[in-house]
Design a protein that fits this description.
- The protein has one domain: Lipocalin (Beta Barrel), CATH 2.40.128.110.
- The chain contains one helix and ten strands; from the N terminus they run βββββαβββββ.
Length: about 180
Amino acid sequence: MTKTKWALDPTHAQVNFKVRHLMIANVIGEFKSFTATAETDGDDIATAKVHFTADVHSIHTNNEQRDAHLRANDFFDAEHNPQIKFESERMEKIDNTHYKMHGMLTMRGISKAETFNVELNGIIQDPWGNTRMGVEVTGKVNRTDYGVSFGAMTDQTGGVMVGLDVAITCNAEMVKEKVAETILA
């Protein structure tokens, strides 16, 4: 089967996260700079090998002071670990639009097996002749598994100031690489 390469369309993609603050509300943030590629057998997403990288310095939570703290050693330690990476190992087909993506997530220099949910929103031909695939990837990771151990406690609620589980949502359009035609002279 012919291998198909897909590249992220960064103008139609977002990587968001949310985590509990004071155990009563969520802080929502995003990474503004990231890349992703995928390789499939034909257009079969069940065969996808995905490579994802996010630039930790691009973290944005709509609060510059908090963003600076997140880049510091208490959280991502961006100076020594400037990227978050995910390399898929296999896809597990649930049905025609739902999959489980298994792979290795690396953050703060620690790699751990993680599984994310993938919803295929469709594959279409756009008005400019490109083939596009839309996906939504969701999941949760425990921040302490990656050495993000900031654990200030609150006196009022008896809980941690920042929750342990971080929910991740990525919406993306991937564009199929066009195969160059060879013209024999």
